[in-house]
């Protein structure tokens, strides 16, 4: 049925001639490792998205989390409170610092970490909190920062999916002691692979710069045992072009989401808090009351009967992955892992695609009701 229609992909990086030209310029220069493009990208990213905070570019978002939290002093024995309903990197980055992720539940409407659950999980070993601006909806940063301050904890924001999102008028990435943005190809903007660390203090920025480059600020005067997590000028050149295109892409994502909000029936649309500006890395609906198998069947029907690509982020709560496997009672996380389904909202979908997506979802929802 309808096999002549092309599949609408769930995500699609947009790489144009401008990106190619930028890469070509770097290749022609003969200087391709970390250099002036990276420095310029850091400056431009800081001004555009991080409220002027000092930004350090690294080779992935995960590296950014790793170095950022090392820079904040995370080590063996330190507990960091994280949501379980997220991508595994949120918790992996805590673990590779030697710390222990302590998994808590999320808000069923915004899918972001529940501040009350954070407060309840604090122990004398807690050193920090890593909220996630999941799908591009900011976490409740005012409450989270107040809790952190009351308990002497640092906050490191996982803004991997939330470039340009804001909470109470301030951009994500500017609330915590530090923050990471991912530049993986499916994110709202890309550099191929890459990550940016926004730093709340000059000292954190210095630490991340040291750890990124073998512990050196001055060549061959290594101060600490560091890594090679540098970004290349090739990647930075792509990122700089994408940064310029991000505002228009974000607007298109928001327009696509508004269309879905107005026309989808039979699924629970994502909630946006009044204080939030949502950048829709994903447009994630809930198939209310569904089992995981029923949700998966919904997704299969969208793909196979309607050629609408879709994704499940994330089918297994991180605390139940083989890596961590801890006993926690996180009922909202479990419910969302069963019910969520993300529809294509990226800026490459056309007005006709949007209509097809709505028609497909409403048809599958009616059939299942
Ligand atoms: C993508 C992502 C990361 C990791 O970023 P990479 O650039 O892929 O290393 C971390 N957290 C979340 C929530 C993500 O979506």
Automatic annotation (TrEMBL):
User: What cofactor does this one take?
Assistant: pyridoxal 5'-phosphate
Pfam families found in the cross-reference section: DegT_DnrJ_EryC1 (PF01041)
Q: Which CDD domains match?
A: AHBA_syn
Keywords from the UniProt entry: Pyridoxal phosphate
Signal sequence coordinates:
none
Q: Which family does it belong to?
A: Belongs to the DegT/DnrJ/EryC1 family.
> What is the name of the protein in this document?
dTDP-4-amino-4,6-dideoxygalactose transaminase
The species this protein was found in: Brachybacterium sacelli
Q: What is the lineage of its organism?
A: Bacteria, Bacillati, Actinomycetota, Actinomycetes, Micrococcales
